[in-house]
Design goal:
Distance between the termini: 47 Å
Oligomer: single chain
Structural class: alpha+beta
Largest sheet: 8 strands, antiparallel
Strand content: 15-25%
Length: 325
C-alpha cells in the first residue's frame, strides 16, 4: 500500500480576498489576488497582496507589443493600430480589417500562426456557428496582433515563418519595450495562448507601463498606440466589452484586460492601476475593476455597468459577485 505524504504548506501568506461570491445572503466563495493603484506622480497609493511579484500580463502586454511593431518600422495608425493591440471579439468589422491588413502586405489568413478558435464574444460565436463557421486562425482574438507582426516582418525582410520564435528580431524588440515601459527587467519568458512569446513583469511594472503610454510624448510609438486605442476602442475589444465601454465613456482612459483575469488601466493624468485575480476567474474582474476605478476617483455610470456581476437562481437575481476591499 502506497502511503500518502501531505505537501508542506507554503510559507507565503495567501493573497487577500479581492472579491466575494454572495448567493442568497450567504458568502459561498472568494477570489483572491493582488492589486496596485498608482497616484498621478507614479507613487504607489494602494498595494494589496504582492503587486511587485512577477505575473504574466497576458493580453495586457499588447500595447507594448504594438509599440514594438511601430518601432520596428511598420507605419500603422487609426483602426489598424488599435487592432494590432487588440483582443478582438471576432465581429465582422474586426475580421474584415485583419484580412485587409494581411492583403496589404501580400499575406493571407493561412500565414497566421494563431491557433484555430471561435470568436471571443459569445454572441458572435453563436452567430458564427449558426452560419456554419468553424474554428479558424483568423477568428482567434489575437489575429490582429499577429497580422501586424507578420506585416512588419515583410516590411523588414524578416522571416515570417519564425515570427513567434523568442529569438526573432521582432520578439527581442518586444522584450526590450516591455522592460523599458515597465521600468523593470522581464522576470520570465513564456508562451501566450496565441503562441506569441510572453514576458512576465510585476503588477507595479504593468501599471507603470500603462502610465508611460498615456504620458508619452505625442508622436512617440507609445503615445501613438495609446491614442489609437482610445480613439478606436471597439477595435481593441468589441461592442459588448468593458474595455470598449471604459475607453469610450471616460475620455483619455487606456484600458486593456488579459487572460487569467489581468487588468491594467491608466487615466490621462498618470493615475493607473493593475491587478490579477489569482484563480484566473474573469467573473470577478468587473467588480474588482469597478472598485479600483472608484478608488482612482472615476465617477461615471460606466463604472456601475462594469461592476455589475449578478448571480442567478433560476431566472431571478439572488446574489452577486462584489469587491471585498
Amino acid at each position: 500500500m502506497t502511503s500518502f505524504i501531505a505537501p508542506s504548506p507554503s510559507s507565503s501568506p495567501a493573497p487577500p480576498v479581492l472579491a466575494e461570491v454572495v448567493r442568497s445572503g450567504f458568502t459561498e466563495g472568494h477570489h483572491r489576488g493582488s492589486l496596485v493603484v498608482l497616484a498621478a506622480d507614479g507613487s504607489v497609493e494602494l498595494a494589496l497582496g504582492d503587486p511587485a511579484a512577477p505575473v504574466f500580463p497576458r493580453s495586457s502586454n499588447k500595447p507594448m507589443q504594438a509599440a514594438a511593431i511601430l518601432r520596428a518600422g511598420l507605419d500603422l495608425s487609426g483602426e489598424r493600430l488599435a487592432l494590432a493591440a487588440a483582443s478582438h471579439s471576432g465581429e465582422d468589422f474586426h475580421l474584415g480589417l485583419v484580412r485587409t491588413m494581411l492583403a496589404e502586405h501580400g499575406l493571407k489568413p493561412d500565414d497566421l500562426q494563431t491557433p484555430p478558435d471561435l470568436p471571443l464574444d459569445p454572441v458572435e460565436a453563436e452567430a458564427y456557428l449558426a452560419a456554419g463557421g468553424v474554428r479558424e486562425p483568423l477568428t482567434m482574438n489575437c489575429s490582429g496582433k499577429h497580422a501586424a507582426m507578420l506585416a512588419v516582418c515583410v516590411r523588414n525582410g524578416w522571416d515570417t515563418a519564425t515570427y513567434l520564435d523568442p529569438a526573432h528580431p521582432l520578439q527581442r524588440l518586444v522584450g526590450e519595450v516591455v522592460a523599458e515601459s515597465a521600468g523593470e527587467p522581464v522576470a520570465a519568458l513564456g508562451t501566450d495562448g496565441c503562441g506569441a512569446p510572453l514576458m512576465a513583469i510585476g503588477l507595479v511594472g504593468l501599471a507603470r507601463a500603462f502610465r508611460t503610454f498615456v504620458l508619452a510624448e505625442p508622436g512617440s510609438a507609445e503615445r501613438r498606440v495609446a491614442d489609437a486605442m482610445r480613439a478606436h476602442p471597439e477595435y481593441v475589444a468589441g461592442t459588448r466589452r468593458p474595455d470598449t465601454w471604459l475607453m469610450r465613456e471616460v475620455p483619455g482612459t487606456l484600458s486593456k484586460m488579459g487572460a487569467e483575469a489581468v487588468q491594467a488601466v491608466a487615466l490621462p493624468d498618470g493615475r493607473a492601476l493593475a491587478f490579477k485575480i489569482d484563480d484566473g476567474s474573469t467573473r470577478a474582474l468587473g467588480p474588482v475593476l469597478a472598485r479600483a476605478l472608484g478608488l482612482l476617483g472615476v465617477d461615471a455610470p460606466v463604472v456601475d455597468r462594469i461592476g455589475s456581476a449578478p448571480l442567478l437562481g433560476g431566472a431571478a437575481r439572488v446574489g452577486e459577485i462584489r469587491a471585498a476591499f
